[in-house]
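Hi L.,

You mentioned the student needs an example of a multi-chain input paired with its predicted structure. This one should do, with 1002 residues in total across all chains.
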Amino acid sequence: MTTKYEALLEKINTIHDIDKAAALLSWDRETNMPPKGDRARIDQMTTLHRLSYEMFTADETGELIEAAAAELADAPYDSNEASLIRYLRRFYADQRKLTPDYVRRASEVSGQARPAWVKARAESNFALFQPWLEQVVELCQEQAELYGYENEPYDALLDKYETNMKTAEVRAIFDAVKKESIPLREAIAARVDAVDDSPVHQPFDIDKQKQFVRTITAAIGYDYERGHLGTVVHPFATSFTRDDARITTRWYPDFLNPALFGGLHESGHAMYEQGTHPDLYRTPLARGTSLGIHESQSRMMENIVGRSYGFWQAHYPALQALFPEQLGKHSVEDFYRAVNKVQPSFIRVEADELTYNFHIILRFELEQAMLNGYLAVKDLPTAWNDKMQELLGVVPPNDAQGCLQDVHWSRPGFGYFPTYALGNLYAAQFYETAVSQNPTIASEMAQGQTTALVAWLRENIHQHGRKFTPGELVQRVTGQPLSHDAFIRYVTTKFSNIYGL
Amino acid sequence: MTTKYEALLEKINTIHDIDKAAALLSWDRETNMPPKGDRARIDQMTTLHRLSYEMFTADETGELIEAAAAELADAPYDSNEASLIRYLRRFYADQRKLTPDYVRRASEVSGQARPAWVKARAESNFALFQPWLEQVVELCQEQAELYGYENEPYDALLDKYETNMKTAEVRAIFDAVKKESIPLREAIAARVDAVDDSPVHQPFDIDKQKQFVRTITAAIGYDYERGHLGTVVHPFATSFTRDDARITTRWYPDFLNPALFGGLHESGHAMYEQGTHPDLYRTPLARGTSLGIHESQSRMMENIVGRSYGFWQAHYPALQALFPEQLGKHSVEDFYRAVNKVQPSFIRVEADELTYNFHIILRFELEQAMLNGYLAVKDLPTAWNDKMQELLGVVPPNDAQGCLQDVHWSRPGFGYFPTYALGNLYAAQFYETAVSQNPTIASEMAQGQTTALVAWLRENIHQHGRKFTPGELVQRVTGQPLSHDAFIRYVTTKFSNIYGL
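Structure written out for the whole complex:
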């Protein structure tokens, strides 16, 4: 006899397959599709998204979830079954709250706002984007009302990316990050010339870059037998199953960092998906639990591992051998310092490990101001520049390098940005816990090795996929809620050392 | 108000999108997917195929087809609307004839027969494959009964690949091909050393091969703005829309033909899809009408264009410039002759332009013998070798190079093989007609140019997609039914010249 849970699982497996096929349509669009294929590709993606949405939000699915929940009322909280039902109940309720009319309008505005943003950024003309951003803000406000919230509208949006996290909690943490890291940033600014990053700014043959990126990503634990490295304009990671989790990167002919640290970053994301437990196969639990936790895994590999001295002691000789002319004259110390240069800049995606968070805090604060109506969209450029001055001490020369730099605001997706900075904080807190529980991790890391670290991540984080909310996971793994402390300790130690503070 | 036809179209568009997403899952599986991703990929493809099948074979779809047909009873025969309804009626009736139980058993047997075939071929041990082929033959017999036929069971199977074509018609044409081209093959055999193909058997750098294949495929009219060239083990072409029709090829480090002629072959297929009329977008009419007509387009580009003297006069200097050591000492005449060497061989996919048909005729005859029960599966190896002797004058040293060489018989797909040879015959007949209607085609071809030829193909064949059956198309384009005459004239002239007969 088929149980209700089995019947539910069959439906969820089908929906999962459709979603993963849509993910492949999207991956291929960025990697292999000829540009003219786009019209049909959008139709194909729209069709699969619609089928998945219709199938999932059907009354029948809700009834099946509740029937399976009743059947499994005694299942332990951390069992796969109970965890899947918790997740499905939440997601079902959320999906049903967005009316088809809202979804249609949001999709239409996003579709038109995107090219308007491209043009506005190209011409550095905010006026071209302003009417679209106004509509995006209205859609965000409407979305918050549809989802509902207890304290403030931003809670409703943040919750979609970082389940159950409250705006007030993020605000307190970000305020602490500001308080503690602005002085560090200023101290470094006074010694900006102490680090020379010219070694990474030289001509580097792209085929050799590819060879090296494959070597170091495999070395940190990204499994190429269950992965694939592709080339794109805007790097990302995606997975179609734990056994096919792909990374992408880009190659600059005269700047090494994007390929190296982009490759390590995306490997961190993909390793999370590769590490989900096989028993979660074909369910929505077989992926990272939130954007913030996902980002903790990518930042861990990019920064805590990839920008460590031990890592470059281990791998720099191979890089030197590939590029003897460029790097023969630079020591591993030179190179380690070069990839750790801290310097406030205008562009978020180019920011260093310390100043990156400021770019996010700025967006987090401006999103709330616009959402709550304290800031009119037309005044965004001024507000942006004021905050840049406050947080980073620099002001962009134009809006293209200011409030027009990111694509994100061409969609009603407020609440997404903070997860980037949360990732940095989670990463530091996880790493501190990992080392305290297994000192081998630290000794291996000093040799540039990650075997024990990855084993710890698999055991404590990866295998669980989406079984627990981010808050539950952090508490479970580190014994306390998310805090800024570990991150501040990490950057203070590291950069005091590098900059001789 | 929405018409019934519009409602039908919306459903058909959705099904089409699902089918094309499934096609991408399949393309990616061959090109980019890491091997371990296969388990999930099979689940994803199975899910999409099931959804498409369920949606299409639903009673509601049949009713919608009939309602739309009634609504459009006065539409001209060659209108897109009437053509789509004709196609859908045929396909709906066919799909409903296969019972879910049959589909399930056929899928199971295919799934298990494939690895058995791989092992049997690797060990050249027919006994390992025999029980599976027996089941495949039984499934083909059952399939023929499910579909139904007027004259002979093979008709029912052939019809699935070459709509409305009858076995008797193919038999008569193939008998004529045998009668007329065996003497030519024998005359050439007596002068086998007149052509030296050693120029194509040398070391050739693969990156340079890629560069050259891109050049010549673009030169014949394959549009890379709406295409993509990938690397695979078993080359194929596929399309996700006329604006994204992809080719694949393979690269041998010491043999030039597979890349060159494989690339041209797959370009011919993809150009057919690229040339379908934009108004057929998102319908099943937006592709080639049958396997045989599709093969006519690939063979046209591979052989009639790609193995012509004019083509190499135009392109050989560039190839020589890429490979001066290998080809500097060989004239264009040498090279033209080398790529046109005729020599009976054991393996179908390596056969030359003249002897290829014999490999197909052999399979066509053996499939009928097995289907009709005249040949027991256990006697296949002997029957195979006897026919090889009769048709090609050579006998393979083992079954791996004989009856175990093709994957096709691990599926219940009898009726597919003949379309390969039909393609050669269609191609010659189309080409003869094209030149008679527009002499510029011949003068351009003598210069290695295909502009007028491709324009003619677009106008007369490509744009129609699947609107007409292959028989209708041939009659419409050439004014007569398919015949072997043009092909025999073509090979006789060409090879008499090359071999000085």
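You could point out the following to them. The beta strands of chain B are 229-231, 237-241, 244-249. The two ends of chain B are 69 Å apart (CA to CA).

Best wishes,
N.
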